[in-house]
Write a structure and sequence with these properties.
CATH topology: Alpha-Beta Plaits
Shape: globular
Oligomer: single chain
Number of domains: 1
Order of helices and strands: EHHEHHEHHEH
Number of helices: 7
Structural class: alpha+beta
Number of strands: 4
Distance between the termini: 13 Å
Radius of gyration: 14 Å
CATH class: Alpha Beta
Helix content: 40-55%
Length: about 140
């Protein structure tokens, strides 16, 4: 089994897509190991996305991620990282395949409904950013 961090971003929460996205997650065979509804401060978002600090989109990304509540989760499944990234779809919803979360629920490349870890090392760091070991079931 592998774990990955998943976030339902503020745009999808505001549009009340959380339940539909959770249904897709469960239908795809993921097990929820942890889940929390939270609002990130600007500082929290900057810390989480620190790897992108020098990128031109850093300011707009962190402002967006701190603009409203999001759902932060740890998903577990065999090959969870690859499987979750496939279910999310391409970062740009215009390029995402039909049936993916981003194709169905994202507005744009910046307001793209979900986040997912891209590698086992990233997943471990991202999970640790939001959840203490005892919070994982």
């Amino acid at each position: 089994m592998e774990r990955t961090l998943a976030i339902i971003k503020p745009d999808a929460v505001a549009k009340r897509h959380t339940g539909k996205i959770l249904e897709k997650i469960e239908a795809a065979g993921f097990r929820l190991a942890a889940m929390r509804l939270m609002s990130l401060s600007q500082r929290d978002a900057e810390g989480f996305y620190a790897v992108h600090r020098e990128r031109p989109f850093f300011g707009s990304l962190t402002a967006f991620m701190s603009s409203g509540p999001c759902v932060v989760m740890v998903l577990e499944a065999p090959d969870a990282i690859r499987k979750w990234r496939a279910l999310m779809g391409a970062t740009d919803p215009a390029k995402a395949e039909a049936g993916t979360i981003r194709k169905e629920f994202a507005e744009s490349i910046e307001r793209n409904a979900t986040h997912g870890s891209d590698a086992p090392e990233t997943a471990a760091a991202e999970i640790g950013y939001f959840f203490a070991g005892m919070e994982l079931v």
